[in-house]
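Budget justification note: compute hours in this period were largely spent on complex prediction jobs such as the one shown. Inputs:
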Amino acid sequence: MLVPKVLVLTGEGINCEKETAFAFNKAGAESTIMTINELIKNPSRLFDYHILALPGGFSYGDEIGSGQVFSLKLKNFMGEELKKFIAQKRPVIGICNGFQILMKLDVFNIDGHRKMGLAPNRSGKFINKWAGVKVEESSVCLWTKSLKTESTLPIRHGEGRIVFLKDEEEKSYKTLKDQGQVALTYTQDVNGSYNQIAGVCDPTGVVFGLMPHPEADLFKATHAVDNRNPLEKSWGFGIFKNAVDYISKNEGTWK
Amino acid sequence: MNYSRVEITNKYQGHHLNSWVNEARDVFKMDLDRMEETHFFLIESEKEISTDTAQKVLADSVLDEFNCLEWDRGEASFAIEVGFKPGVTDNSGKAVEDAFKVFNCQNKISTGKIYWVYGNLDRKDAQRLGREILANPLLNQIQVYTIKELRRAERFKHISLPKVKISGTGEVKAIDLNISDSDLESLSIERCLALTVEELGTIKKFYERKDVQTAREASGLPLCPTDIELEVLAQTWSEHCKHKIFAADISYSETSEPKYGPNLGSFKVDSLFKEFIKNTTEKIKKERKLDWLISVFSDNAGIVSFDEKVDLCFKAETHNSPSALDPYGGALTGILGVNRDILGCGLGARPIANTDVFCFAPASLSDYDDGKALPVGPKPPRRMIEGVHKGVEDGGNKSGVPTVNGAFFFDPNYAGKPLVFCGTVGVMPKKLADGRTTEQKGQKPGDRIYMVGGAIGADGIHGATFSSLELDENSPATAVQIGDPITQKRVMDFMMEARDRGLFSSVTDNGAGGLSSSVGEMAELTGGALVDLALAPTKYPGLKPYELFISESQERMTFSVHPSRTTEFEALAVDYSVSANDIGEFTDSGYLELRYNSELCGKIDLDFLHNGLPQMKLNAKWEGEIYTRENWYKGAELSEFNGVSNRSFLERSLIELLKRPTIASKEEWVRRYDHEVGGATHIKPFGGKLGEAPNDSGVVWLGPHGGEMDNAIAIGCGLAPRVSLYDTYLMAQFSVDEAFRNIIASGADPETVCLLDNFCWPDPIYHSSKNKDGDHKLAQLVRACKGLSDICEAYGAPLVSGKDSMKNDFRGKNGYDEDIKVSVLPTLLVSAMGKTNINSTTQASVRSSDEKVYLLGGFGEGLLGSEFLEITKISDSELPKINLEGNFNRYKNIHKAIKDNLFNSTHDISEGGLAVTLSESCFGNGLGVEVNIPDNSLEVLFNEAPGRFVVTVNPENASKVEDLFGKDAICIGKTIMEEMLIVRDSKELLIKKDILELQKAWRTELC
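Corresponding output:
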């Protein structure tokens, strides 16, 4: 079986790279943590990997909007490589800050335009809390495929509220939903997100962006409500496993 | 140069300004309707910046409104513009500069905010709003405009960036110490040296030595010290760095018989630190044959081995004085500073958990007696609480270290200086790939000296000496600065890789004293150092050499790098966007040599620098309980009490206790800390079904951090400042016991616990006019140390690191121009870290109905020092007792019971007593408890006697628990399906309250 290679991007204030790499490794992949500066020296190195992960954190301190500067850097120095990577249906995940970065890279455009954004939580405050999440049945997302429908994951963000371009909310949401791009929702309103959206995918389902942190729910050991049987796998683990399986079962495609 | 201004307004603003609006309405009685904010960016660039580029860089196409031409919010009554004063760290500005670099534009950026204020306000209101809520005049430029004035100001045309204008480059002065004592005293004050006349005399004498003079002549230096030499001595010899009081020769005596703690008689101590702290740890190590103490009291943090694969570093610091003046910046630099202690431990450890404990004056103090109790200078309680909290939030969250444990303690005596304790646990591999032991530093003569991280500015000059002085209304603003968590995070990532690749031989942090301390300390091992200060990067030109050397500008580490590794070291720094500069080399010359562009400006004898400070001789005289406490802060006076503990009184007492700021829920605040980044937080601040029951300690799983797969550590803290009003000997013991209880409740092994001591004291040095009870306060310190030492021995728990902060007083004016002095309660924070295992931990929340409820450690006695006495007119003359041996045996049994899975929940009894503990265990899990207690209900419900727990047990395990604990476990009742707290004594129903009602009271807002 092919051991999928995962590139976990870091630097400039990304701070969940270790647990994200740990998650993929536990799911059977081989992760490399690399700074963005190292990668942009030679962007084609991206293609040495099957999966790209943009972890959580506070790149550039969330100054002038979370993900803003990091995404400018990615877009400017390796925008074409990223497009190609996605076009080849190599899985990409952006978690929390990673999602905020992906959002600004135009991968979740609707009808060819950026119509969605991640605004400050309605409370205006950062929040760390375990929230109920639900996998949307209509979703095409490969990362959430056949997971148990409902579970809980920790959210840890100040800017995680999904909003749509003013006056186009309903229409944009409908398109997103119809294309199976709404992948994950909250079971309760935690930050004012539109229709409680927690995560979305691109129309092909290979790119997944979500605000909650599945890499903090790999084992029961870190579960908020029940941490007995600590070394038993927890729900969040399944997300990484899905992508790893997707690659290893398609052995040959990636050579 | 081109200048432009851009403004960005988020169209989807959250409600973060609401609390300020409410405060302006409720506290300042302003007719304020709402506020909105706009970010502005002032850009200085060589090339003209196109609107397109600016928009691309600064605005989000969905979220933001972009403006680069005159515009405004016409309906607002005022626009309050808040920018930075020259030289103040502007993190937003730095990020925007980085963003423009992506497009090859090298710009200088300054940022700020415009607050659009809507409502019926006058100019005075608007100015007050700006000065007291929206900004800090020490750091910010504040402009208040009506909309008409704003238009007239044409802000998009007239643009000027705040710039520091100083011109001291290369300037070195010789300082003549051959002057009168009173002139020496003035010199010390003017230069903020915090040296006594005697200490300056010692320096003077040294410089008069023949051999010294001959050597100086040979080097071409003036015979008297140069400013840089004197400043370096002052930093190194400051109370902050040298702990002179803890090292002093002290004669202790008692003029009055201690009422509560033991009579210690008269004795002499040669260094409290050596006698009561270091020797205590050594004795414990020897007696218990501890093999897990790797390094204590020698490095930046204590290092212990609770794991086969990794070692752990543990350290806590305070940042009180800076936090008083700028709560946000003070706390932010506090948490980042203690993280750097961990980074600079051995060859570098990675921070994996933060703790934070704050002592504040309650917000209600502002309303008491028309605010007469509030000093002018330090920020008022609301700003303090909000700012300090936000600083810790940003420091931890943005650099990716989870905040897993902490506490808030409130008392009016913290109005002058708040206490801001920040702690960190770090992890390091036992050995590096090249075989070196990670805990050992190895700098050698010939190694290059690298300064890594931030650049040097005037901010943070005299931090070490400033914090060694009491505060007054003229305290220097340069001691205040803002941290930059992202720069630090980059440094952290960089140095972990550099360490693992073996690129450096040693490292230490730049904390108090800046380069002077870090290079000075590292030079001790090699025997010398040579630094050219012109090589250090600066934020702006014009700094004098001495300023460069002692500035405490943040986010800097000092490394020693073998000349053969410098190329790799520098290249790696580039990958992590970290600045690394070669500023000199370690030598074995015996001197700390300082140059500026090769010109010698100072040459300090290292032996004199580190060993020349004469030991202080002090008297400590215990004069009994001389504290009288004004009845100035009462949350509620339950005056209906008529000597009978009837139901309505007890229920109301419980409700009022739950609202007390020290006890009330901190969930709203704690959830703004990221407490699980790292993906290893096993026990979080809140537990239970809905995550609403407060846990006693934070437990961090070591598996994901490279440790054994099921290994973990529990981290807790304890403090009991109010007991200092009676006896600090007991205060210290209550503090240790609380820290112990916290981690025992989560499953820690009491035989594998290490402790940190952080003393924060009011000035303990006698002065005939300014500090008449100095001798008594020193006696309180001696008693606290003795109490600490005794309990550590009894519990077999070594102290592995600690710190003290000795001048926590404010002397100045209140808002009515009246003289006031506010001194903190003598406070000892004890932090505890114990080994545990993720397979056997417990939390505070009860799990199901029909669990048996046991009280471990008895019903307790004595209400003195309790929260309950703070809110009632009842008097009691009894302080709870502490039984060291009994407690420790109980802790061992609890550990055994948790390991055998006998407990469903464990919660320690602390502030508020049994009634509060029972209530908290039921929050957010849909259950209740029903208990029976003895007839002295008042004392039983509300005393805070140490050593005690409430645990719940499945009925089938009851006999095992009773066998294990014997009489020490008292079954007091059971959990019930009904969400009720029901308490009875032998005669009647005492409390019957809906848990949700109790929880609502507990959720009272702090401010």
